[in-house]
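help with this:

***
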Amino acid sequence: MGLLNFLNRRSLPTVVAPPSAVGQDASTGQEPKPAAEPVPGQLADLEAARTELLQLAAAVGVESLNACPRDGSRWQDDPATIRAITAVIREAHLEEQLSAEDGWSAR
């Protein structure tokens, strides 16, 4: 196949999921359950986790964050997920500091 044929060839049509499968969890095939209304204790825990993440992000210079859970839920509404993301950022920053002290940089 010549270069012009390669550049001009058309792609195959995309396969679209049937309407019944749109919005379903890929692992179970079921619609994601709507989140229950949080109680005041859960709201306080969520706010504490968010504050911890924001403080750490400001301290280490994180300017943006992108995360996507597999089940379609909002990671911003789960204190455990927020704390896990905070731990990952903290570990990455610590490793970066240790490698800088050793004179090695991953950048």
